[in-house]
TrEMBL record:
Name of the protein this chain belongs to: Peptidase M28
Cited InterPro entries: Peptidase_M28, Peptidase_M28B
Limits of the Peptidase M28 domain: 230-422
GO molecular function, one term: carboxypeptidase activity
Gene3D superfamilies assigned to the protein according to its UniProt record, in alphabetical order: 3.50.30.30, Zn peptidases
């Protein structure tokens, strides 16, 4: 750790961040007018700390849950509709059909039938025959992948049975951010609700008896002006790091994400006070529309500032759910391969005995910058160790450091932990500094080449004799050799740092989209799981394909391999 890093880490205080956490613990931030009050609270504190802030106010598309219920067997059950559920205040009645879910996939964003319902549904044709015209009841959360699947199968409603006594808010649309005209056909056309475990068990039992239910949902939906506070901290160079997180929440949302908002507030204070010492700048942004707009705030920013981000952003760092109680582990730390070494070193420099393991970024969070091609790390922050979670009999959730208060009214002040928050602020600050300060950007593109080679090899083995992936293997090997030479030359000083950094940024614009997206640059992929190198992923499905479907799948693979090989050739030519 450098002397400058130690000095800035020592400057971190909990005074301003903890005061914001306490304020937000009394301030719900999900209705549009309350969200804007949250933005004003952030901006007021920044100004009091002497940090200039720009307030953008775009109109973004939101869906705010107002009420929901399920009537069945003469009983009215409490429910919550996820954002973007179809509003049917008059009610929709139909026969209940129970689809037992794979317990290991309760939080899965996959649309793979076997992963979601392994052993209970053999094919999508069987699913359509079973659920058409019915209301589906299943375990899990009313997430986009599940909701879109049952809608495609002809279901007229979905009831997601949460695994505990509480009901979790969420969202059920695959559309990322405010829809454009191409997105609109994917807007949910069925009502979706979540219920707790006890209600779910009653509804499953009724479904087995052939019973019916009525779903009622009421939503407030449309375009709303929402505020986005942004702090720009200049550096000597025009390039910058984007540090960001959402400030809207479900209810008061302390662990998700008041603690993240406080983390960014303190980093803004420390970096602004030391702005004259930064090589690269830092842009810090607080998003609305994360919960009720499916990342609509960050998506608007990615759209409105796309060309600037393309030209100057070297990395995006997402800040969600740091500083929560019992969150002492880093065994599920989100990072792309090129930033994994940086992330591990930063965490272990703050927590030398940290349990650390990386995970591939989900198609979730505010990762609204993949299609531009920006290297990324962090999403959820520290979390509860698995052993402790099992000891507490907690199920797996997507935030709050593993606390099952996530997305419920229970995400209150006690979910935050001062010591963990101080630790996580320092981790985020150190990680950002190690992007801003080195003369040479610390990205490991050889690790990406190795990841790609392993992925291609895995798909080739899965496809067996059904496909020839040798063009992809050869292109990957050529890129690996070229980028290894580039990194060696840069590290040895044989290549000017400015040139190496420009090449690194240009490589990200090629390699991130090919590994995380299916749609063109500057568009936004649907909010369900993108497998590694998604254009090649169909290779693993070929042995299961039959009849005409095999021919269709092979056609898709041919096109996907063409895209991949062309990208590898572009990257290889780029680095020489």
């Amino acid at each position: 750790m450098t002397e400058q890093e130690r000095r800035l880490l020592d400057a971190v205080s909990l005074d301003a961040p903890w005061e914001l956490v306490e304020t937000f613990s009394r301030m719900p931030r999900w209705r549009p007018e309350d969200v804007n009050k949250g933005a004003d609270a952030i901006a007021d504190r920044l100004r009091r700390l002497g940090v200039p802030v720009t307030m953008h106010e775009p109109e973004i598309y939101l869906s705010i849950p107002l009420s929901a219920s399920v009537e069945a067997g003469g009983v009215t059950h409490r429910a919550k509709p996820p954002s973007m559920s179809l509003s049917v205040p008059e009610g929709r009645r139909a026969k209940l059909v129970y689809l037992p879910a794979n317990q290991k996939a309760l939080r899965s964003y996959s649309r793979d039938v076997q992963e979601l319902f392994g052993g209970t549904i053999a094919s999508e044709d069987e699913a359509r025959a079973k659920v058409a015209g019915c209301i589906v009841v299943t375990e899990g959360f009313g997430n986009p992948a599940l909701s879109s699947l049952v809608e495609e199968w002809g279901a007229v409603g979905l009831i997601a049975c949460n695994p505990g006594v509480d009901i979790h808010w969420g969202t059920c649309t695959t559309i990322w951010g405010t829809p454009d005209l191409d997105d609109l056909p994917r807007k949910p056309k069925i009502p979706v609700v979540a219920v707790n475990k006890a209600t779910g068990e009653a509804l499953m039992a009724l479904a087995r008896e052939g019973g019916e239910a009525t779903i009622r949902t009421e939503m407030l939906e449309g375009f709303f002006p929402q505020k986005i506070p942004v702090v720009d901290i200049p550096g000597d160079e025009t390039d910058y790091v984007l540090l960001h997180g959402h400030y809207d929440s479900w209810d008061v949302g302390v662990g998700d994400n008041a603690t993240g908002d406080a983390t960014m507030l303190e980093i803004a204070r420390v970096l602004w006070a030391n702005r004259g010492q930064l090589r690269r700048g830092v842009r810090i942004a607080w998003w609305p529309g994360h919960s009720t707009g499916r990342y609509a705030g960050s998506t608007w920013f990615a759209d409105a500032f796309a060309l600037d981000l393309d030209a100057h952003c070297v990395a995006q760092v997402n800040c969600d759910s740091p500083g929560c109680r019992w969150a002492s582990s880093f065994h599920a730390t989100t990072t792309m391969s090129e930033t994994a070494r940086l992330v591990e070193a930063a965490i272990k420099d703050i927590v030398p005995d940290a349990v650390f393991k990386t995970k591939r970024p989900n198609q979730a969070g505010d990762y609204s910058f993949n299609n531009i091609g920006i290297s990324s790390f962090y999403m959820l922050s520290s979390t509860m160790p698995d052993d402790l979670r099992k000891e507490k009999n907690y199920y797996d959730v997507s935030g709050c450091g593993g606390n099952i208060a996530w997305h419920t009214e229970n995400d209150q002040l006690e979910i935050a932990d001062k010591d963990n928050l101080l630790r996580d602020i320092r981790i985020y600050l150190l990680s950002v500094l190690r992007l801003t300060q080195p003369e040479l950007l610390p990205f490991d593109w050889v690790a990406v080449a190795e990841e790609f080679a392993a992925t291609v090899d895995r798909y080739a083995k899965a496809a067996a004799d059904h496909a020839d992936l040798s063009p992809a293997k050869e292109a990957t090997a050529a890129f690996h050799a070229a980028v290894a030479r580039l990194q060696g030359d840069a590290a040895a000083g044989r290549l000017p740092a400015a040139r190496a950094n420009a090449l690194s940024k240009a490589m990200a614009r090629i390699l991130v989209p090919i590994n995380f997206t299916r749609t063109p640059r500057f568009a936004h992929d649907p909010a369900f799981t993108a497998p590694p190198l998604p254009g090649l992923a169909v290779a693993a499905e070929l042995p299961r394909a039959r009849g005409a479907m095999l021919g269709f799948a092979k056609t898709q693979l041919l096109r996907g391999q063409n895209r991949y090989v062309a990208a590898m050739r572009d990257a290889t030519r780029l680095v020489g």
